[in-house]
Amino acid sequence: MEYYIGLDVSMKETAVSIRRDGKRVWRGKCASDPATIANILGKRAPQAARVVFETGPLSVWFYHALRAEGLPAICIDARHAKAALDMAPNKTDANDADGLAHLAEVGFFREVRVKGFDSMLTRTLVAARTRLVRVAVDLSNTIRGLMKTFGLIVPSGKGRTFERNVRSLLDDQPKLSTIILPILEAWSTARIQAVRLETQIVAQARRNEACQLLMSIPGVGAITASSFVTAIESPDNFRKSRSVGAWLGLTTRRYQSGEVDYDGHISLRGDRHLRGLLYEAATVMLTRSSAESDMRTWGLKLKERVGFKRAAVAVARKLAVTMHAMLKSNTTFERTAKA
């Protein structure tokens, strides 16, 4: 007999529900540890057909750890599961586990592709560097705001120029210096560590053939290329290149009901960070890049009709589609389309 298991995973405890032949045969709670769960399922459900849980902070670890234990782990879209779980009159972890087990039994779920550990390491590296850059920007803005209170306006400038301007303004402000200088030291440390992480990203991109292909596009650097490669993982994960734009939330949302039928803003689904990087690359291509290409010409013409922001979003979607096609065909960027 086949068993269907639902896991409602939290940081400390996991609710487990086991179903067989349309009925719940056991449910309980245990520590959120894949080895412990595998031990329980080995006793309670020796012939597990599906082990279903939702996407969340622990989903990558749970998926690979349960698979290593020989369990048929399946990670499903939390938004898809929510519609079914909301049918329960009471919202509890046990009821959520029951609902997930029921979804596993009837097969009404959307499986999510879980990334490998190597891809997650690269994504973590990019996320850590991005966070440090934001911390440095926040600290510099804090310094400017605090000094402005005392009539000290820091001139525009970045990096060492910013630090030199701050220190020169604090030369005759001994009391204020004891407050601002520690923040300035934290700002300097954050910038140094961000540069170190960026150096690692660039070094990895230079050793990766897929990243080298994508970096042949004007405006696409090591960070954007690495983020795209780790998000896609394998070009075969998408049957059509056009699907990548929708997967990243760069296509318009459609609403149709009766006589009403219109397209709205972009869906904003998927990887928010990668979507921002593609928009940034599109902005660079339309503004600062001097390399002419058919994509840039198309974007500039579109800008005259619909405005810069909409044109940049359209170019970002086109970039995503083109980058996937380049990975699939293993070719570099062609600035001019062949006849």
Question: What does it look like?
Answer:
- The structure is a single chain.
- This protein has 339 residues and is an alpha/beta fold.
- It has helices at residues 34-44, 59-68, 78-85, 93-106, 117-148, 160-169, 174-207, 209-214, 222-232, 242-247, 272-287, 294-306, 308-329; strands at 3-9, 13-20, 23-31, 48-54, 73-76, 252-257, 260-266.
- Helix 9 crosses helix 11.
- It is globular, with a radius of gyration of 25 Å.
- 31% of the residues are buried.
The structural domain count equals 3
Strand content: 5-15%
> If strands are numbered along the chain, what order do they take across the biggest sheet?
3-2-1-4-5
Mean pLDDT: 92
State the secondary-structure class. alpha/beta
Which regions are unreliable across 5 or more consecutive residues at pLDDT < 50?
A: none
SSE string:
EEEHEHEHHHHHHHHEEHHH
The proportion of residues forming helix, as a percent range, comes to 55-70%
Q: What is the CA-atom radius of gyration, in angstroms?
A: 25 Å
* Quaternary structure: single chain
Number of helices: 13
Broad shape: globular
Most strands sheet: 5 strands, mixed
**Spatial gap, N to C terminus:** 60 Å
Q: How many beta-strand segments?
A: 7
Sum this structure up briefly.
The chain is an alpha/beta fold and 339 residues long. Helix content is 57%, strand content 14%.
Write the layout of secondary structure elements.
Layout: E1 3-9, E2 13-20, E3 23-31, H1 34-44, E4 48-54, H2 59-68, E5 73-76, H3 78-85, H4 93-106, H5 117-148, H6 160-169, H7 174-207, H8 209-214, H9 222-232, H10 242-247, E6 252-257, E7 260-266, H11 272-287, H12 294-306, H13 308-329
Parallel strand pairs: 1-4, 4-5
Antiparallel strand pairs: 1-2, 2-3, 6-7
Helix pairs in contact: 5-7, 5-9, 7-9, 9-11, 11-13, 12-13
